[in-house]
Design goal:
The structure is a single chain. The protein is of the alpha/beta class and 343 residues long. Helices cover 38% and strands 14% of the residues. It has helices spanning 25-36, 52-55, 61-68, 88-107, 138-150, 166-171, 218-236, 262-280, 294-309, 324-337; strands at 3-6, 42-44, 76-79, 82-84, 113-116, 155-159, 178-185, 207-212, 240-245, 284-288. α1 links the parallel β1 (3-6) and β2 (42-44). It is globular. The structure holds zinc ion. Residues 161-163, 246, 248, 289-290 line the site of zinc ion. The site of zinc ion has 7 residues, from loops.
């Protein structure tokens, strides 16, 4: 399996405050891990900046211009949690563009799957607003690009970050060409992602929210994946699988209240690879979202890449018995999406 990797030192030039959880140290550590890793089966895909037109596939022109205006300025506060430093615009354009390059590499058959190890992250970014450490919505720009440049009409986005991807949900809420499935801690930031948010109009049923309670672990997440993510995705039959890969559900994460381990991330990755392999020749592309315990993040990313390469670090298992809470969550999700998906 050839895994495409996007990395670039420009992503270290988006400077937040030292005490900010989303800081360059996250990628410094991941890149050091990559340097140590056996390069067999890895191919580096060079990033490029997304163009203004590409960003505007998902973002308001005025918003793109406003972010462009932060170029060279010491610090611009974009939202209570989100800042731009002098080179943040450049980094954000390269984050979205890096993901687009990964898409091109996958669509042309150069790689099967891939991981864009970029920052700033993207899934909270709305079409006209920065939010929650995110500037441009890398995964949403990618999905729009797949529609426009490749004519795809069945794009699956799975978001296993701790937080709900409000920006991604809103981008595709009224559309059936993109199925958005998210697991996230609830109630929690940003407050969206309840069961009853299933899409609207044409898009009804094409947003699937799995709000997980505090403290859920590998078994609970794998159960939700087995019961909801897998079956709904297979009914949808995606032409490509995009993943908002956040690792703030890790038990060590300072922002999260979940108890997922490296083994759980391996299991989720394996299930997503199986969906991609059954539906779309294995095409699966990940974009890095959250994950704020640097060591846990690095180990988790390594585990995922090893899984993608076909050299897993863990024996496959189903994670044991899910909790009663997870079973209840899953049954509520099934109830909410029953009108749209016959599971
Ligand atoms: Zn997050």
């Amino acid at each position: 399996m050839t895994v495409g990797i996007v990395r670039d030192d420009i992503y270290l030039q988006h400077i937040t405050d030292d005490f900010h959880p989303e800081n360059p140290r996250r990628l410094v550590s991941i890149y050091a891990m990559l340097d140590e890793m056996d390069k067999n089966g890895l191919v580096y895909v060079p990033a490029r900046p997304a163009t203004r037109e590409e960003l505007a596939l998902n973002h308001d022109h005025n918003y793109v211009d406003m972010i462009c205006g932060t170029k060279g300025k010491m610090q611009t506060r974009l939202d209570p949690d989100t800042v731009a430093s002098p080179r943040s615009y450049e980094a954000a354009c390269m984050a979205a563009g890096g993901f687009l390059e990964l898409i091109d590499a996958s669509m042309s058959g150069k790689i099967v799957n891939g991981f864009a190890l970029v920052r700033p992250p993207g899934h909270h970014a709305e079409s006209g607003r920065s939010m929650g450490f995110c500037i441009f919505n890398n995964i949403a720009v990618g999905a729009r690009y797949l529609e426009k440049s490749y004519g795809l009409s069945r794009i699956l986005i799975v978001d296993f970050d701790l937080h709900h991807g409000n920006g991604t949900q809103h981008s595709f809420y009224s559309e059936r060409s993109v199925l958005y499935i998210s697991t996230h801690q609830y109630p929690y930031y940003p407050g969206t992602g309840w069961y009853d948010e299933v899409g609207q109009g044409q898009g009804k049923g094409y947003t699937v929210n799995i709000p997980m309670s505090y403290g859920m672990n590998d078994a609970d997440y794998l159960y939700a994946f087995r019961e909801i993510v897998g079956p709904v995705s297979r009914l949808f039959k995606p032409e490509i699988v995009l993943v908002s890969a956040g690792f703030d559900t890790h038990g060590s994460d300072p922002l999260g209240g979940m108890a997922v381990t490296e083994r759980g991330f391996a299991g989720m990755t394996k299930m997503l690879m199986e969906i991609a392999s059954d539906c779309c020749g294995g095409k699966m592309l990940l974009a890095l979202e959250g994950g704020y315990h640097v060591t846990a993040l690095t180990n988790s990313v390594k585990t995922v890449i090893m899984e993608m390469k076909g050299t897993p670090l863990y024996d496959s298992d189903e994670g044991g018995e899910a909790s009663a809470g997870a079973m209840q969550t899953v049954s509520k999700v099934k109830e909410a999406i029953k009108p749209y998906w016959s599971l």
